[in-house]
Amino acid sequence: MTMTRRDALALAMGGFAASVLPLPALADATADAIAKFTGGATAGEGGLTLTAPEIAENGNTVPVSVDAPGATEIAIYAPGNPTPGVAVFKFGPLAGSQAASIRIRLSKTQDLVAVAKMADGSFVQAKSTVKVTIGGCGG
Amino acid sequence: MISRREFLQASLAASTILGASGLSRWSRAMAQQTMTQDQLLQFEPLGNVTLIHITDIHAQAMPIYFREPEINLGVGDARGKPPHVTGKDFLEMFKIKPDSPEAYALTYDNYVDLAKSYGKMGGMDRVATVVNAIRAERPEAIVLDGGDTWHGSMVALKTKGQDMVDIMNQLGTDAMTSHWEWTYGEERVNEIVDTLPFPFLGANIFDAEWDEPAYEPYKIFERNGTQIAVIGQAFPYLPIANPKWMFPDYSFGIREERMQAMVDEVRAKGVDLVVCLSHNGFDVDRKMAGRVKGIDVILTGHTHDAVPEPVLIGETIMIASGSNGKFVSRIDLDVRDGKMMGFRHKLIPIFSDVIEPDKDMAALITKTREPFKKELEEVVGETSSLLYRRGNFNGTWDDLICEAMLSERDAEIAMSPGVRWGPSLLPGDKITMEDILGVTSMTYGETYRTEMTGETIKTILEDVADNLFNTDPYYQQGGDMVRIGGMGYHIDVSKPIGQRISNMTSLKDGADIDPSRSYVVTGWASVNEGTEGPQIWDVIADHIRKIGTVDLKPNESVVVTGA
Hints:
By secondary structure, chain A is mainly beta. Chain A is built from two helices and eight strands; from the N terminus they run ααββββββββ. In chain A, the strands form two sheets. A five-stranded mixed β-sheet of chain A has the order 2-8-7-4-5, covered by helices on one side. By secondary structure, chain B is an alpha/beta fold. Chain B contains 19 helices and 23 strands. In chain B, the strands form six sheets. Chain B has a six-stranded mixed β-sheet with strand order 5-6-8-9-11-10, with helices on one face. Chain B has a five-stranded mixed β-sheet with strand order 3-2-1-12-13. In chain B, α13 (282-291) links the parallel β8 (273-278) and β9 (297-300). The two termini of chain B are 44 Å apart. Chain A binds chain B through residues 1, 3, 5, 7-17, 20-22, 51, 53-55, 57-58, 63, 101, 129, 131, 133, 135-139, and chain B through 180, 208, 211, 235-237, 239-242, 244, 251-254, 257, 302, 415, 417-421, 448, 450-452, 456, 459-464, 466-467, 474-475, 477-479, 482, 496-498, 521, 523-528, 531.
């Protein structure tokens, strides 16, 4: 019987991460993308809520939402994905709220990053670790 | 007015499970004479609200032996704190005398001798007696079931949970939450929920497609003019730890912000007391208690911990009521003007030889078992070893299961899930099919046989270890370590994922496990749809029939460091 790595891992009752390599804090591609979004400005903290599951039920469709009252733009990055840039939401002056929800695909366990551009031109950032495992044996 | 802190301390001192009776070293007869039902139930009523909590019964309708863990390691902030305290340390922490009834009920030391003295524990007919007695004194008591109720026995498997549904209805349950219930599939869950005379609560159960709440998040009870909100929290990692394909339309998760929103919502409605009926597991609940504001009481479940005193986290008290019907918690609360002013708690141990069975419940249990009597009672062999499972690493039941799989399935390495349920058997006991199903019954019990490389096996061990020993409880799933047969390994629980497991060796010849070589691996309880193979209980029964008597050697194949 031939099994792919994914099949074999899902078969065993242990949940497991698709990669057990230590993750860099931020991959270079992500840092570059964020620098481009912020124009090189340093992002502060607070005022931006990034909501994501602690452990993904399905790495192929992970629900993520962002909320930053007063923001004009919010960008989401998945540094562990081959292409880290996920989405940029832009809010016009008439937007009732500055919040958005999206489902994204995550290739492995990683720290999601969201960056919001506020109306005064400043930036804030939030992080959330999402663990991607296949199968488990909780009980 | 007495301050809340003083009240809590006063209550804590009064909450040891048997009061100051100081029983120790009694023979069984002595124990029966000395320990009375009245004494077990003795409780000085307090305040105006009574909660009765039972959880993780795992369909154990009959009295059982259940040995508590010897190894239950806590990591990060939980290190050395209850429930991660076992044996003598546990006895010292809670001032329990060795060999006393409490020591037998709550720890593992000298288990076989004490089990022979004090007898089996639990039994839903005894639980009914206790619940009825509390209700006689406090008619408005609220009975709350923390879930893992419909699964775990042969009768439950054969009736798709119906026996336990009938038992819990007769007990007079007021609300429940869920976990293994879902392994009967979402259709069956909803079929049962439609018939329940009480709510099936889960603030964190969402429709997977529309990402909106799918079940009642809470129920508000009015008792003696006091409004009590009970918010349900189902097991957060159902689609990861159990087969997602059995309940594809639902999504779970901790959803801390949702819990806070529900607490705020019921507070805004003016409730006086907020109770969370949780199946998060102890460490997850401890973290949640520190982050979600406004919960007065968390009735915690999932990790099967029996803690004789409430654990205080800020303004929240956590109650852990054990598993398998061994304990019922009674919590009396003094609630005034929207505030919990004080509480008194007792973890009531259900000594089955001391507590009189409730006749109606006993009759119902007999009726549910009747159609399966012959199968339940079929003897396949006997054991000269104590058989137990609970603990972070292999128990003797697991060693037997792995041995059976290796032998019957002609494999090099066996994997058995680190579930926390499964009663114990004493040396000299006969092994019946009911006993085997008691540690294995499930709707996905097929025993697979496949090939995996050494590297894949290590990846699996690393990932399961991270589900248990991640220092952030929100990343723990609450299962114990996967049990391994045919292979030994070292584990440093203090390391991060990828670095915990080392020295993987074949037990057959002592050779190192080669990352690139393929090994024949057998296991059961795969979360994959379409897994093929014989049911695990048949594999075990076949093996025991061949060997006749189970006689296990001590297993030293797992070396643990960093604790």
